[in-house]
């Protein structure tokens, strides 16, 4: 089913969707309506209008990166539920069949 360059079957395949035939037809009409609306917007004269990403100016407030408290290795490892030789944090096995090296 292909009309006006929109292949709903291909779009559904790319999105890994399985669509019933009656839904494909409905989506075909909806996608054509969306493309038609975008084409209608392209008729507007936008000369001299700066593109915007947001309706209001956005400012990111970031604090200075200042080092504060310093913890020793022993203090940090004291919070771990289990360690290996007092150096590494022991975590549950992730991959089956993998043993400790």
Can you walk through the features of this model?
By secondary structure, the chain is mainly alpha-helical. Helices cover 33% and strands 8% of the residues. It contains 3 helices and 4 strands, in the order ββαααββ. The chain has helices at 8-14, 21-41, 73-77, and strands at residues 2-3, 6-7, 83-84, 88-89. The strands form 2 sheets. The chain has a two-stranded antiparallel ribbon with strand order 1-2. Strand 3 (83-84) and strand 4 (88-89) form a beta hairpin. The chain is flat and about 65 Å long.
Radius of gyration of CA atoms, rounded to a whole number: 28 Å
Shape: flat
Count of discrete alpha- or pi-helical segments spanning 4 or more residues: 3
Q: What is the H-and-E element order?
A: EEHHHEE
Taking pLDDT < 50 over at least 5 consecutive residues as the criterion, the unreliable ranges are none
- Helix fraction bin: 25-40%
How many beta-strand runs? 4
